[in-house]
Every structure is written in C-alpha cells, then in structure tokens.
Amino acid sequence: MAAPMEEDPDGGPALPWAQAPVFSYSERDLIRSGVRWGDAAGSPFDAALRSAWDQRVSAGCFRYRLPSDGLPSRRLPGPRRFLAQLNPQRATERRPPQDIRSLRQPFEPERFNFTRIPAREVVFRLRREGEAGAEAQAGREAEAVLVINVSPLERGHVLLLPEAARGLPQLLTQEAALRALELLFLSADPGLRLGFNSLGAAASVNHLHLHAYYLDQSLGLESAPSSPLLAPPEAGGRRFLPVHLLSEPPGRGLLLYTDGGDLARAALTLHALCQLLLHRSLAHNLFLCRGCPPGLPPAQPACRLGVRAVLWPRAALFGPKPLSQPFAVALCELAGHLPVNNPQDYRSLTEARVLDALGSHLLPEEQFSQLLEDVSQMLKE
After folding, report:
1. Is residue 157 annotated as a catalytic residue, yes or no?
2. What is this structure's pTM?
3. Which of 353, 288, 367, 317 lies closest to 77, judged by CA?
4. How many CB atoms within 10 Å of residue 61?
5. In this structure, are residues 100 and 318 in contact, taking their beta carbons and an 8 Å threshold?
6. How far is residue 73's CA from residue 85's CA, in Å, rounded to a whole number?
7. pLDDT digits over 120-158, tens only?
8. Choice among 207, 209, 211, 361 that is catalytic
C-alpha cells in the first residue's frame, strides 16, 4: 500500500512546496485490476487527493466554488454523446493567460510560474519508493508536486508539476509522461483524467504542468474504435508501443494503450511522438484516461483496466482565446468534455457544431496523412 502522508522538512525554503506533505508510492500500489464504473471504492491516492482538495475548498483557496451538487451537465444528442457542462466562471475568473509566441518559448522566471504560488495551494509532493534519502536530496529539483487549479474544471482539479523546481518550459518530457501514467494507475476511479496542452494549443502558463481532475461521467473516448497505424511486427518495434488511429469523427488522433506493465515504454513513445511534432512545428493536446484496449470495434468495450493516451496534432495558434466562442478547444474538449461559457450556448450546443469546432483546430486530412508517414518511420526504428 502507499505510505501514509508524512511531513518532510527538507527542501529549499523559497519553494512553496518545501514543507508540503509527501505521498509515497511504489510499483505495488499501481492498480491494474478491479477498475470499473459504478464501483465507489477508491484507492489511498484517491482518498488523499480528494481530502486535500476539499480542505482547500473549506479554506477558500479557489477563485470560485463549484456547485455542491455538481455543475449543470447535459449529453448532446448524437452518436458521440458529448458531455457539455456549464462553467462560466472558469472563463471569467481564471488567471489571464501568458503571451505565448513560440512552441519552444524558453522558461522565463520573471513571469508567473508555479514557484510563485502560495504554499496553501500545494496538495502534496509525490515520491516513488527508492527516491528517499540522499538520492532524493540530490534530486530535489526533480521532485513532482501536485497543486490545486484555483479555477477548477471539476472536483479534484489539480496540476501535476513533474519536475517542479527545474524551471522547465511547457514541453512534455519523458519523466512528465511517466508521472502522468503512474498517477492514473494509482487511482481506482475510472473518472480520473489527465492531460497536457502544448504551447500554441491552449497552454496558458509556460511552466511544465499537466491537468488532472475527476469527471464522474464516462466519455466516448474510453472505448472509441481505432485501427493500428502499422501491422505487426512493425507496429511498435522494440522501443515503442504500437500507435493506433481514432476511427470516429473528429478523428486525426494518435492512440496508445498500456495495461500498466510497460509504463516506461509508453512514456518513451509519448515523448518521442511529441518531439516529432515539435520537429514539424506542430502544437498538440494529450488526454489520458482509463479505457479499453484498442480495436475496430474494441473487443472489450466495457473494460477500464488499462490507460488510453490520445495525442492530437494541430497547427499552432497564438494570441488570446476568444471569449465569444462557446468553448475553447484543448485537451478535455477534444476528449468530449465541453466546459461551456454561457447558458445560451449550453442549451443550444449540438453535436454537429462541436465537430465543426474541433475539426477546425485539427490538422487537415492531407497534412495528417503526411505526418503519419513520419510516425510510421519512427515506429520502425
């Protein structure tokens, strides 16, 4: 079992998480069975995160409070069954986004970053078994931290800072991908979602972070049909996991699946794909959730034991996000979860309108096909 939360006085006093409690875990705590919708049982990680998050609510740490009975939600008619939620305060109360000008914009310590947040916004530090003692002290800058998102999408909305003190820009590292995968396997709740917005794809802070939150309703992405990009034995070679292509609109997404036994390889594959996209000057959104193994159709559509990671390449878009749109297009919207800005759009939104909005931000089919040639070549290495 995961170790109980403990106080750890080590760390630089200038960092807001220097005195934060530690959540320790090991390979034995990763959950690879028994995860299903309708099972209220959580894990030690779920209990620790939800408790700490609720404490921050009581302490008034957020810019607004979510309704105690949940955000207004509706399923849009249609086969995709998109989930719309009315959350106007996130659009109006959140911190203004930074001026992002490049996919590889360097970290700028003089601008807002997560080393400047109040200590009360820190949930806890994450420590793998074996990182304690001298090794942990030497690698303190690489410590992973969870902090609350003060403008939450849903209950439990936190930010994962994989290597918090290093001052890394918003470029997905292999370590960040591994931490995200581990967090999902630490949870027994199929509603936990994680995701990453690159610069030029709705990231608003240029300090390496991923979003994590609980959404207690299923999404079509968990069991969406897909087809392999390459046939065996070339599907993933020796280094990488196989890559699949989403088959349903809006499509144009790359799907990886792991049952938890190959997390290092999964993280390596995600990192390599993101590096390839950066080489082609493409922005991207990544969404990770519990889901079933890939297939067309999936052989086990009700299974939620593994993790699906979907990466959407897109043309980079810089400048302010227009509030006139019913929703932004970022990691959760592409996955089918639509936080909507105003009641009128919430009531009138249709599946066709959503598909048009999502498709307009993704690569055109011809450009996506050209990208797949590069991905295929990478996987054969």
Report:
1. no
2. 0.94
3. 353
4. 15
5. yes
6. 4
7. 999 999 999 876 554 455 456 678 999 999 999 999 999
8. 209
